[in-house]
Amino acid sequence: MMNKMYKNLRFRSKIIVIFGIMFFFTTAISGFSYYQYTSHDIEENFRVSAESVLAQIVDTLDMRLGVIRQRAQGMLTNYTFVVSFSDYLNNPNDLNLIKTMGTVSSFLKDLETGENLLHSSFIYTDKGEFDNFVRMRNWQFQFKESEYYSSYIGGPGKAIQWFPTQTDQIFQDTDEIIPCVRRFSVEGYKGSLYLILQLKAKELEHILAGKYEFFDKILILDQEGNTIIGSEGIDAAKLMKLAQKEGEKGAVITSDYEYEGNTYLVTCNRLTENGWQIFGLKSRESLLGSLQSLRNVILETMGVIFFVGVAAILLLSHQLTNSLRKLEKRMSLVEKGDFNTRFFYPYKDEVGSLAKSFNYMIGEIQNLVKKQEETIEELKWERDHAAEVQKQKRKAELRALQAQINPHFLYNTLNAITWQAADQGAKEISILSNSLGKFFRISLSKGAEIISLKEEIEHVSSYLDIQRIRYHSKLNYQIDVDEQWLDLRVIKLILQPLAENSIYHGIKEKQGTGLIRIYEEPCSGEAEKILKLIVWDNGAGIPEDKLKILNETLKKGVTDRLEGYGIYNVNERLRLFYGENYGLQFESVEGQWTKAMLTLPVTDGEVDSCIGS
């Protein structure tokens, strides 16, 4: 299909299409290659920079967590602190408790003051609980019922346990904290002691806040994949798997991560102090956003080059195809019937050869057209002559078919008159004679082939009156045709043969009184209005197989002289006069009834005339 469309293009269009395709692919491939190279270079630079930024974050957090760890270690090994705890735990009394509470409170205050990242501290022992009295305690908090204590039950575990970000449980506030539980011991005391250090989640976020200009999202996960700090909705488990997959390549990874319909470049590093993993996420769209201007420049350059190239190609194609366009105009004149036109071209190139062939072809066409016109005139005369002959032939056939009906019925009627005269007397003979007179009057119609439907109904009524006298009470008839159709013009003698057929092939073969009904059924065809005249009887009916053969024969227009000549005569006359789409068809139920249906065309003028009358 595309090949055919291309071949149908003009030369100028073909040149422009070829140039456009070459330009498009050349520029597109160059622009795409440059874009890919630039985007790869930006991603590589980001990877190096991300590694450096994340390393700075890790160094900062490791240093500050290390300071907290060292200060806590220093406090727990301080001689005064240890002696105070040892005296109380080994000899718990009120005096030692007061001394220990003062000493521990002082040490915890110094510990919290030295590092802003530290939110609060708390020490639990079997002999009591200690803090620095700065914050209000939550007295409902029970250390041995908390997750802090349960993490040490069932095994030795690690001395230091980190927990995910949560609301403060130990003190009466709603601050978000990050708990770190450290188990320690005092010489001379066998029980376990626990130091709980709680970090400020907001301070940790503040440390990371300055890095959001470089990363779109930053996430800190502990070793179990729990979120310490980070954006909600990010699939932490997926990031952990990504870190495990890329872990062999080093501390930093760069990979694609799908989140909320965007693709992110992920960088990861691990804290040595507590095993936390820090993930930095950068949207590929925001990273490569600077390339948007580059894409615009490439598109603008492509547009300028394209329009300049098209202008050059149009100028060149005009020079090459100008002569061909002139030849094309001469051909257009020939298409409109001007065979006197010629194309003169002074040069002997390819266009000159075309001009010579064109002029020769036009001369030959002029000669052929002249001969064709002479032949057409002869054919017209032969056509008109054949049409007139065919018209006369059809009129002769109609008259011949019309004439064949009269002798047959005349014989039957005269026979009926003779029989009735012998049996019933002069009155009925008078009726028969009157009806017969009307019958013949309408049959002759002064030689007219077309009569009104009213006259055709009067004709069949006369026939049925004659037959009703003949058959006495064995025959009745009804005619129910609306008056609006009585002025409709039809060919004559189309109803009487059907009524005759109903008597001799239907009612005559039936026991009891027979009934013939004649009525109309108006309907619409595809192109014009149609009137159906129905002749119905309650006679013996037609067997189904015979009915099928009868209708097929009528549809084909075949005359079967052995199966009732009258109905085939009517059908053939209708087809000859109105056309093959009209004629006669039968419906019947054997032993019950038979319906003969005449199909006639009705023009709009005839309908208006009938209704108006």
TrEMBL record:
Keywords tagged on the record: Coiled coil, Kinase, Membrane, Phosphoprotein, Transferase, Transmembrane, Transmembrane helix
Coiled coil: 362-406
InterPro entries from the UniProt entry: Bact_2-comp_sensor_kinase, HAMP_dom, HATPase_C_sf, HATPase_dom, Sig_transdc_His_kin_internal
Transmembrane region(s): 297-316
Database matches in Pfam families: HAMP, HATPase_c, His_kinase
Domain HAMP: residue ranges: 318-370
Localization (cell): Membrane
GO molecular function, one term: kinase activity
Signal peptide: none
UniProt xrefs under PANTHER family: SENSOR HISTIDINE KINASE YPDA
Protein name, UniProt field: Histidine kinase
Organism of provenance: Lacrimispora amygdalina
